[in-house]
């Protein structure tokens, strides 16, 4: 049953995207490690880290698409789940520094020594073990999403109200994490990592593995998301998106359906954050900024809402554009981003993938109309 | 403050034996001189100064103080300044001022000129610190009797600040003559203060404590605390009760101050949120560029002030009055363009509108940054908006005061517009049932466009007000947008009263939480409270009633 659940996920577009991702996961690290720097196909480490960062963003956008595209919940606070996952990983990496920090304290991270703390706060316990940190990457965002969603969906907060309170949630977390006495490094966040599972985070080998992991994780999450939306549950999910009251009247527990999807999505965002932090080398409260979370929405919208592969394409394109733009004309990036928001919502409501798919479907329909009638009875396998 | 009080007391105790001795000596001398010359004739007393030694002089000064004759104040001042001289020939005392090689002499009592004298003909009357103190005390007493009300008030104030038992009788004499109510009140308080350090009976001291209690304020607590150790143990209860009472009043004033700060913050929130509330209510869309409209309003103020500063510097005090319509028109026009250019294509898709207006807000921010630069711009306060005035136990700054009044005015104006004008009627109709309103012949697209322009224009006006209390930078709007959303969501959409109550509640709540948990944590708590509140009332405090399943 579980196999069939996942097999159903493997629809054409998804398979193609998974193949591309897995190809990336193998080829990019290989070219980085095996080819010499003068080889034209060599991918420098910084480019690989940059691409890895895009893939993490793509995973975040995918997570958002699951709730926005398929459940109609426009979360303006997904950056919060992403950052919480990132902080969980960051805390593990901080504990791994050990006595190599500036102050050389074997237990306390530098910023705690600096703040004159005498012992580790209770919520830092266990983060010296990787398995615990990895668990927390899932549990903390999932728990927040569960508690938040439990209250919100039960009292039928939806539409723009929900969007606004998700924004308030990430804003509140932003303010909280900026405080020094929260115990998460305040303004500066967590940085200066040394190694992960015993391997140096700076080395090309580790970077390659992290990149490959990001690509593989994205592929896995894509398959999972696809499996969810193509299952029976996924059909109900679409019903919730399009006619919530009707689904409720049919006897479904809409709030539970929403809650499940929201929690799964938050966990995916947490994974994205956890993979993001070792590749970028820092996590700070700025990641909680509401503006960041809104940007995720535009990645999803550009690529194509409720297509699952669209957000991946959108995240990579927009972030690639951002990297180029801010390098060439730093003043114009906000114009471009703002314009993108307006133009995409006005002229490209289905996003790139949606529009292309629509165009293809139209052409196919036109071809089908041209072909003689007696062929129409045959099943068209490719559809 | 406490430190100096202790020091002062130490010095006073050290001086006490000397003073008693001086008073005794003075008494003896007083008897001796009283026989020859009248003790209350100021001229004779001043003449006696010429021949007296330090102790005698101190006694004479005390006597002078007791005469209550304000004419001798200049003489005392001159004595303290070292300008009092005695003529060798007839031992008459004069105030002498250096003039050329010699001195001009002035009669110490009448102030009339008494000719000139060469330097060799007069001798300076010597003075020391204890005499200076006696002089200032006598002066304080004498000015209490001055015919000038302001001088009397000042004298009473100075006694209040440095009480001494010696002034007591004079104060009482002055009190008996006093007619002005304000001065009398201050004198009574000064008397109470002096009384505490005197050797008067317990009953009078008890009354004095009561008077001080009515004076109130931190100063009164300070005075009572200083008096406490030397006080009769029988009065201990009264003293503690008085201090407690004063502290209670102070706490009340602190609360009042907090409420005022809260109202002030709330009125700022109201200004920022009210336009948002209208557009959200009528059109069902969230305008993420609303904060940028506030920012545009603030920059309009900046531009208007720049023009005034360079072209008509005299009109600076009117700059805000000029900026108000300018900002309204600029932001209203911007709103109209945004509505016609972007939003009207997105009706029925509120979430997409949210994204598109967010994009507009980014563009506007960058536009302003490109034109005016990323740094804060200086917007000046007109004279009538700077400074503050005391109100009971708290200080009220004029700019906060005006902003509270201004936002209430805007609120009432909008309320009138909504309830009394035809446009308001159309807006309310569209808010309640868009399709029905449309069937009745209301052109809903135009209502939408002008509602949006109106909301944006009000945001612009809010920007004019906010430019007075906040930094005018391209990020100005961003700092208000989330708070404005919270107000709208908390108060209920499309309901002006809801927005008012929401804004003021959130403002006051914020300011009351701040002293307990700090500004940042307070804000977090408010956000969490709103998130929880929304669970209970998903449509806000004052929800519009309707029959729709999905609003």
From TrEMBL, chain A:
Keywords: Cell membrane, Membrane, Transmembrane, Transmembrane helix. The keyword Ion transport does not apply. InterPro entries: ABC_transp_permease (IPR001851), ABC_transptr_urea_perm_UrtC (IPR017778), LivM-like (IPR043428). Its main location: membrane. The chain crosses the membrane at residues 12-34, 129-153, 160-178, 209-229, 257-277, 297-320, 332-353. Signal peptide: none annotated. It is found in: Cell membrane. It is a multi-pass membrane protein. PANTHER family: HIGH-AFFINITY BRANCHED-CHAIN AMINO ACID TRANSPORT SYSTEM PERMEASE, SLR1201 PROTEIN. This is Urea ABC transporter permease subunit UrtC. The gene is urtC.
């Amino acid at each position: 049953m579980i196999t069939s659940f996942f097999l159903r996920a493997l629809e054409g577009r998804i398979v193609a995207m998974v193949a591309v991702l897995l190809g990336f996961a193998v080829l990019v690290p290989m070219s980085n490690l095996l080819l010499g720097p003068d080889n034209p196909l060599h991918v420098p480490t910084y480019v690989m880290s940059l691409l890895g960062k895009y893939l993490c963003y793509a995973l975040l956008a995918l997570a958002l698409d699951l709730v926005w595209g398929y459940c109609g919940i426009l979360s303006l606070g997904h950056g919060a789940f992403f950052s919480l996952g990132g902080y969980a990983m960051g805390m593990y990496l901080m504990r791994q520094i050990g006595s190599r920090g500036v102050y050389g304290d074997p237990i306390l991270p530098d910023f705690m020594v600096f703040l004159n703390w005498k012992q580790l706060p209770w919520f830092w316990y266990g983060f010296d073990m990787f398995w615990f940190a990895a668990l927390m990457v899932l549990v903390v965002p999932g728990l927040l999403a569960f508690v938040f969603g439990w209250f919100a969906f039960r009292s039928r907060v939806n539409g723009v109200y929900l969007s606004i309170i998700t924004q308030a949630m990430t804003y509140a977390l932003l303010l909280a994490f900026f405080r020094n006495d929260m115990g998460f490094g305040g303004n500066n966040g967590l940085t200066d990592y040394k190694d992960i599972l015993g391997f140096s985070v700076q080395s090309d080998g580790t970077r390659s593995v992290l990149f490959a992991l990001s690509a593989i994780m994205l592929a896995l999450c894509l398959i999972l998301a696809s499996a969810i939306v193509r299952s029976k549950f996924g059909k109900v999910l679409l019903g919730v998106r399009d006619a919530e009251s009707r689904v409720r009247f049919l006897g479904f527990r809409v709030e539970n359906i929403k809650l499940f999807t929201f929690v799964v999505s938050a966990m995916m965002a947490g994974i994205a954050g956890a993979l993001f932090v070792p590749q970028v080398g820092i996590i700070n409260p700025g990641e909680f900024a509401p503006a960041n979370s809104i940007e995720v929405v535009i990645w999803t919208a550009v690529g194509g809402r409720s297509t699952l592969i669209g957000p991946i394409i959108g995240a990579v394109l927009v972030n690639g554009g951002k990297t180029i733009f801010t390098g060439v004309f730093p003043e114009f990036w906000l114009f471009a981003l703002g314009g993108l928001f307006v133009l995409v919502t006005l002229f490209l409501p289905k996003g790139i993938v949606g529009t292309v798919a629509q165009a293809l479907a139209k052409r196919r329909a036109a071809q089908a109309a041209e072909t003689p009638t007696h062929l129409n009875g045959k099943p068209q396998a490719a559809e | 403050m406490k430190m100096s009080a202790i020091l002062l007391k130490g010095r006073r105790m050290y001086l006490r034996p000397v003073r008693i001795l001086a008073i005794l000596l003075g008494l003896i001398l007083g008897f001796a001189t009283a026989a020859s010359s009248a003790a209350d004739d100021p001229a004779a007393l001043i003449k006696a100064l010429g021949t007296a030694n330090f102790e005698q002089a101190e006694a004479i000064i005390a006597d002078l103080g007791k005469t209550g004759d304000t004419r001798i104040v200049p003489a005392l001042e001159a004595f303290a300044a070292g300008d009092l001289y005695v003529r060798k020939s007839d031992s008459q005392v004069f105030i002498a001022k250096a003039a050329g090689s010699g001195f001009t002499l002035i009669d110490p009592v009448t102030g009339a000129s008494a000719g000139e004298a060469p330097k060799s003909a007069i001798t300076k009357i010597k003075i020391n610190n204890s005499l200076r103190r006696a002089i200032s005390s006598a002066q304080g007493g004498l000015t209490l009797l001055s015919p000038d009300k302001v001088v009397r008030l000042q004298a009473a104030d100075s006694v209040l600040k440095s009480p001494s038992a010696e002034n007591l009788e004079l104060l009482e004499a002055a009190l008996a003559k006093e007619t002005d109510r304000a001065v009398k009140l201050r004198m009574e308080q000064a008397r109470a203060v002096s009384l505490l350090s005197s050797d008067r009976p317990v009953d009078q001291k008890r009354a004095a404590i009561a008077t001080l209690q009515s004076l109130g304020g931190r100063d009164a607590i300070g005075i009572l605390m200083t008096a406490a150790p030397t006080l009769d143990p029988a009065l201990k209860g009264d003293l503690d009760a008085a201090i407690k009472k004063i502290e209670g009043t102070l706490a009340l004033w602190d609360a009042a101050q907090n409420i005022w700060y809260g109202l002030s913050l709330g009125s700022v929130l109201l200004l920022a949120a009210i336009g948002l509330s209208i557009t959200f209510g009528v059109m069902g869309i969230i305008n993420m560029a609303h904060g940028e409209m506030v920012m545009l309003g603030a920059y309009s103020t900046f531009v208007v002030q720049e023009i005034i500063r360079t072209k008509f510097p005299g009109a600076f005090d009117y700059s805000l009055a000029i900026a108000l319509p300018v900002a309204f028109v600029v932001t209203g026009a911007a709103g109209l363009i945004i509505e016609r250019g972007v939003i009207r294509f997105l009706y029925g898709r509120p979430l997409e509108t949210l994204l598109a207006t967010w994009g507009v807000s980014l563009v506007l921010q960058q536009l302003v940054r490109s034109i005016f630069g990323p740094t804060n711009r200086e917007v000046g306060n007109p004279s009538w908006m700077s400074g503050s005035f005391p109100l009971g136990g708290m200080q009220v700054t004029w700019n906060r005061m005006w902003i509270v009044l201004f936002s209430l005015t805007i609120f009432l104006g909008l309320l009138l517009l909504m309830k009394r004008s035809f446009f308001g009627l159309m807006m309310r109709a569209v808010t309640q049932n868009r399709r029905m309103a449309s069937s009745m012949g209301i052109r809903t697209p135009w209502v939408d466009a002008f509602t949006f322009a109106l909301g944006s224009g009000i945001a612009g006006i809010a920007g004019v007000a906010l430019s007075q209390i906040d930094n005018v930078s391209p990020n100005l709007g961003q700092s208000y947008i989330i708070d404005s959303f919270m107000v709208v969501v908390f108060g209920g959409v499309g309901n002006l009263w809801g927005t008012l109550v929401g804004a003021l509640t959130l403002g006051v709540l914020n300011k009351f939480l701040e002293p307990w948990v700090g500004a940042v944590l307070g804000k977090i708590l408010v956000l969490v409270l709103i998130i929880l509140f929304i669970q209970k009332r998903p449509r806000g405090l004052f929800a519009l009633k309707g029959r729709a399943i999905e609003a």
